[in-house]
């Protein structure tokens, strides 16, 4: 099982156009400038310092839906058809672009990962059937559910049919399955879109009834691909997950219902991060059983590929939450704190930049980053410097 963690910084929204961008994408070392792998963010306690977090890839505000799909998701599709499971998570604070990344907008260019994934899967199905002259048949079926307060609800069922306790999970030959979950065969992209749109209406309707927002539940779409020949049946699943917002709800809302919600959200996201960490470190024990979400996905139990897209907002109002979600997603990787000596150094677009000393405990790194020298003089006249 392999895990890739990438970050995507969303553009400024209309209401934010007058705000500073404090979260930036950078390249390091020999990498080409066109492929950043570092997210840089100021230290909230000291603007003269900044933190940098390294990921497998980082997408800045200009990245298109097509680029995210082509670079991150399209390469996994051949593995799906070779029998591996693929899992794609969008992780981040509410308002950072998880739903935009996964579902996207209506126009062709705005379509997110999910419709593009389905479109690619159907294209490949047709190619396989054609190339094998009909000897291999491919069927696609989906289920779509949400996990809210650690309970599972079927999104293909209308909200009236929900029971308060949600659907039970049972172990079946070592795999966890949701009992009673609808699985809908779905043969064309059009059919998929109808099902998916209706299910998303179910999601928002029930969210209002439960007096919650969709940002407090995890939405999980599972696409099961079954390839059948005369002698073999091969089943693999692509799961695409729009996670609950990773912000600390306790900071702003402290009524009882919110506390229940946030503790179950925090717990499942915590377990998810632990699983991702254990998988990426190839640890023998993956704590997937400790939350329903990770248990159902059998994360780390199958051979498969996992992609975590960390969505980030570029503005200061998200500063603390952004930092905690960067820390959360990046526990496993190097985190460097860069410190500037007494004199502040700014980069050309007025962002603080710095170098050295580390916060990763034993793994202390002192590594001045390259752009500093070049940026130094150019930024002495930074208009924002008071
Ligand atoms: P989340 O699901 O994480 O709460 P949304 O996907 O709803 O966040 O995004 C919040 C807002 O930002 C929405 O209005 C969305 O259209 C916009 N947005 C997010 N990412 C982008 C992007 N890459 N390009 C343009 N608009 C975006
Ligand atoms: Mg959302």
TrEMBL record:
One of its GO terms (cellular component) is microtubule associated complex. One of its GO terms (biological process) is microtubule-based movement. The keyword Chaperone does not apply. It is found in: Cytoplasm. One of its GO terms (molecular function) is microtubule binding. Keywords: ATP-binding, Coiled coil, Cytoplasm, Motor protein, Nucleotide-binding. Its main location: cytoplasm. Belongs to the TRAFAC class myosin-kinesin ATPase superfamily. Kinesin family. This is Kinesin-domain-containing protein. It comes from Lepidopterella palustris CBS 459.81. The chain holds residues 1 to 386 of 762 of the full protein.
């Amino acid at each position: 099982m392999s895990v890739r963690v990438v970050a995507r910084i969303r553009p400024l929204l209309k209401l934010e156009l007058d705000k500073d961008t404090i979260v930036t994408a950078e390249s390091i070392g020999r990498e080409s400038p066109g492929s950043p792998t570092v997210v840089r963010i100021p230290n909230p306690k000291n603007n003269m310092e900044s933190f940098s977090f390294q990921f497998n890839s980082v997408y800045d505000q200009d990245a298109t839906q097509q680029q995210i799909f082509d670079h991150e998701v399209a390469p996994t599709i051949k593995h799906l058809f070779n029998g591996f499971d693929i899992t794609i998570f969008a992780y981040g604070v509410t308002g950072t672009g998880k739903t935009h990344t996964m579902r996207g907008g209506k126009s062709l260019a705005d379509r997110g990962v999910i419709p593009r994934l389905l479109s690619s899967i159907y294209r490949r199905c047709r190619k396989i059937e054609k190339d094998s002259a009909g000897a291999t048949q491919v069927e696609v079926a989906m289920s779509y559910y949400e996990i809210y307060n650690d309970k599972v609800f079927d999104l293909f069922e209308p909200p009236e049919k929900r029971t308060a306790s949600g659907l039970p999970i049972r172990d079946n030959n070592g795999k966890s399955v949701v009992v009673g979950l609808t699985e809908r065969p779905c043969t064309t992209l059009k059919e998929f879109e109808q099902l998916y749109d209706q299910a998303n209406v179910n999601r928002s309707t029930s969210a209002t009834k439960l007096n919650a927002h969709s940002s407090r539940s995890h939405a999980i779409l599972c696409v099961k691909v079954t390839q059948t020949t005369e002698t073999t049946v091969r089943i693999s699943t692509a799961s695409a997950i729009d996670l609950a917002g990773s912000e600390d709800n306790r900071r702003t809302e402290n009524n009882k219902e919110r506390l229940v919600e946030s503790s179950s959200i925090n717990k499942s996201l915590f377990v998810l991060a632990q699983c991702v960490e254990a998988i990426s470190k190839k640890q023998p024990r993956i704590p997937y059983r400790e939350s329903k979400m990770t248990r159902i996905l059998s994360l780390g139990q199958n051979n498969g590929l996992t992609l975590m897209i960390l969505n980030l907002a570029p503005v200061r109002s998200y500063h603390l939450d952004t930092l905690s979600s960067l820390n959360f997603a990046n526990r496993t990787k190097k985190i460097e704190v860069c410190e500037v000596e007494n004199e502040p150094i700014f980069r050309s677009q007025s962002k603080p930049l710095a170098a050295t000393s580390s916060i990763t405990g034993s793994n202390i790194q002192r590594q001045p980053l390259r752009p500093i020298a070049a940026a130094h003089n150019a930024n002495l006249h930074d208009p924002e410097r008071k």
